[in-house]
């Protein structure tokens, strides 16, 4: 399993994009990193389940707009499978509905295709290690748009969060503010391992895939101003 501080093995990546030139470019970018390996390619979301089962990637680098089965649908289907790899969305533009749907489906990150190559490689590493990755554009709009919705989601979200104990709720609120484990530890005067334990417990109790979904739920509940 990949970690942010010294990965013991290479991050295995499946590149999914309907443009062969884009796939070739991503293979070149990722292939330049000693700790990342592109294990396969697909031109449509319809190919993803079989390739994931065959190749066992850690991360699926997913385009959104593809024929037959688009990236949003492929992400939703993939993340429902136990033990599914992380999904990092890489797309040409960020329509608000696409951001919201991809993140709620369990995508661990959302980047635009004009992201510098070094940042794409770094994002793959972070997503593989379980850390959320959002482009600055998506981050700026996440609270106002991607998690918007008002009272129709607030009550159900608050009801779900009652499954957490007080400390887990505090930690979840900090996740909703976009803080890292280290930042949460400093804010709440906890050790980083304790923060990780609380985050893992919260995800398990709420039936969520990753920190992005937890942040969305916390914001739906109105715990973050």
UniProtKB/TrEMBL annotation:
GO terms for biological process: phosphorelay signal transduction system; regulation of DNA-templated transcription. The modification 4-aspartylphosphate is found at residue 63. Residues 12-128 form the Response regulatory domain. PANTHER family: TRANSCRIPTIONAL REGULATORY PROTEIN NARL-RELATED (PTHR43214:SF24), TWO-COMPONENT RESPONSE REGULATOR (PTHR43214). Keywords: DNA-binding, Phosphoprotein, Transcription, Transcription regulation. Residues 157-222 form the HTH luxR-type domain. The lineage of its organism: Bacteria, Bacillati, Actinomycetota, Actinomycetes, Glycomycetales. InterPro entries: CheY-like_superfamily (IPR011006), NreC/VraR/RcsB-like_REC (IPR058245), Sig_transdc_resp-reg_C-effctor (IPR016032), Sig_transdc_resp-reg_receiver (IPR001789), Tscrpt_reg_LuxR_C (IPR000792), WalR-like (IPR039420). GO terms for molecular function: DNA binding. The keyword DNA-binding applies. This is Two component transcriptional regulator, LuxR family. It comes from Glycomyces sambucus.
